[in-house]
Structure formats: structure tokens, C-alpha cells
Amino acid sequence: MTTHNTFYPLGKKASILYSGGTDSALAAYLVGQKAEEITLLTFDPGFIFFIENSKKHVDLLRHHLGADRVKHEIIPIKPFIDRILFGERKQDFKKYGFNLTALVCLGCRLSMHTMAIIYNLEHGIPVIADGSIRKQSTVPEQLDSFVRRNRRTLWWKYGIRHFSPIYSEDNSDLEMDKIRLSLKPNLKKQFILFDTQATCPFGVPADVYARIFYGVLSGQAREVDTFEYSEQKRPLMEAIIREHFTDKTPGLDDLIGELKTLASPLPAKWEDIDHA
Amino acid sequence: MLKLIGRYLIATIMIPVGVVVGVAGWIQNKLRQEYYQRRFQEIRDQIKQEEQNKPS
After folding, report:
1. Do B21 and A98 touch (CB under 8 A)?
2. Model confidence over B1-23: pLDDT tens digits?
């Protein structure tokens, strides 16, 4: 049974969806002050470059928090990408059309969520955080309504308390400079071929599409598509998780029960994205 | 230096791609406006209902 104490209010273990960029690194630092041990989860979908860059902030995090308290895993997720992102591509294009330019990032993110759930269940980690920020809520996967709803309908379904501790933070690179956690200044000004995280070939057109054409110019399209796309992919995600734990002991329901017991001492603040 | 050149080279190609696709998407979304407005209201109502039945 995890001991939630005033020293580590989040308990013994937490994981972070970790790209290596300033947002997820700052989120990791904040969570690392409240959990005894943090695991940084970097996912490789199979089509990104320079994923080793994600290691660059890890050493600084270990220096600040303690080497024995910070683990880092780079986990391949291509099979999940093939099923979730690409498995229904014809019907996705028919339904979403050009909006897929931005939704591809959401599909990739949902594939990461699927693996993160499996990892947390297997390692008894009841808390997960990420570096989502309101300033980037033009992109579907960081949309306020998506993050908020996912906390209840996805993460908690598997006994995991999710939060985005820096959701209101606009300048994570400046905050990191202040606490001497940043590799170099002005990292947020980089837009491709990043120093501290991988580069995705879909990134630039997806960003241009999401920021300019998928926001106010498209009315409610982004909100509706984000909801419908994530609902559509949910059965695939659940099937993958169920398949993973088939014929395993303990089974899926037992692992979920264990995590809920570990997570329960935390007061549920479902409305506040930045609280567990 | 190479990284800087690479950044601007990629941007020179990929930003216009994003803009062209973006214009096509904007036209597409304009044509689907009624659908999105209706669905947005339905989804809002659904989320409101869900939030009233919060998980324990």
C-alpha cells in the first residue's frame, strides 16, 4: 500500500508522458518533487527522427531530483500506431477529410496513451502526468475538453489518476531557465529539428493546420472531430489493452483494482486539469 | 549551422504544404458547418450529463 505523506503527496510512483521538450521536462520536475520515484515514458511510433534527443534533459532531472529517483524508458509503439492511427485510414479520410492533417497527432497520442496504460498497470503506477499546455490547445490532443474528459473516461477507467500540472504555464522554457533545468535558453522558439526531443515529419504541416485553419476559422470542427475521433478509437485502445493482459496473472481487473486502491487517497479534482 | 539550414529548408517546403491543405480543409469545414454546429451542441449536452455522474 502506497504511503501518501506530506513529503511525497503523490505517493511512491508516478509516470510522465515525456517527449524531452521543455513542457514535459518541467512537468516531470514538478511531479518529481511530489512522488518518490518518477518514470519518464518516451514513445517511438516508428516514423520520428532523433528520439535519442529525449535523453538530454534526463541527466539534468536526475541531477536535481536524484539519479535513483528518475527512470527513463524509450518504448516502441509501432504495432499500436498501425492499428489505432493507420488501421482505419480509408474510413478516417472519408469522415474527417483534410482535418486528418491535425488529427494524425491525436491518433499518435492515443497510441501512446494505450501503451502508457499498459505500462502503468504492469508497474503499479497510479499517477500519470504530461506536459499539455493551454497555449497549445489549438492542437486536438491538448484541447481542454479532450484532456479533461479523458481523465475521467479513459485514465480513471484503468485506475490511473491523470493530470497536466503545467496546463496554465505559457513559458516552460523560462521557468526551466530559472531553476537551471534547461539545456539552453529559448528552446520553445525551435519549431523543427529540436535539440531536446524527436522530430516528427508530420509536425510542421499538422501545426500549421491546427493553429491557423482548425481553430476559429473552422468553427466547432476541431471540438467535434476531437470528440468523435477519440470515441471512435476507444474500442481499439481497449481491445489492445485487454489482449495484452489475456492469460496473464494477475488479470486486468485485479490490476485496475490495485491501482485504484493506490490512487484513492488523492482527493479527486476532476475539474482541475492541473491537479491529480 | 547545419541544423539551422535544415530547419529553414524543411519550413520552406512543409509550411506551404500546411497552408495549401489548410485552405482545402477550411473550405471543407465551411461546407460541413451545419453538421458541426448541431454535433457541438449534442456533445456539450453529453459531457454535461457525464460530469453530473462523476466517477467515484
Report:
1. yes
2. 777 787 788 888 888 999 999 99
Q: In order along chain A (276 residues), what is the average pLDDT of each group of 10 residues?
A: 65 95 93 96 93 90 95 98 97 97 96 98 97 91 93 95 92 83 75 80 89 89 97 98 96 96 82 83
CA distance B56 to B46: 19
Q: Shortest Cα distance from B45 to chain A (angstroms)?
A: 13
Cβ <8 Å between B55 and A156: yes
ipTM for the whole complex: 0.90
Nearest Cα residue in chain B from A146:
B47
Supply the DSSP string of A170-212, one letter for each residue. S-HHHHHHHTT--SSTTGGG--SS-SSS-B-TTHHHHHHIIII
Question: What's this model's pTM, rounded to 2 decimal places?
Answer: 0.93
Strand ranges inside chain A, DSSP E: 11-17, 35-44, 70-76, 127-130, 161-163
Q: Please check whether residue A214 touches B, CB under 8 A.
A: yes
pLDDT recorded at residue A1:
40
Residue with cell 534547461: A182
Size of interface A-B (CB pairs under 8 A): 98
Cβ neighbours for A88, distance < 8 A, ≥ 6 positions apart: A232
Q: What Å distances lie between residue A111 and A151, A155, A223, CA to CA?
A: 16, 13, 20
C-alpha span between A85 and A103 (Å, rounded): 9
Q: Which residues in A lie closer than 8 A to residue B55 (C-beta atoms)?
A: 152, 156, 268, 270
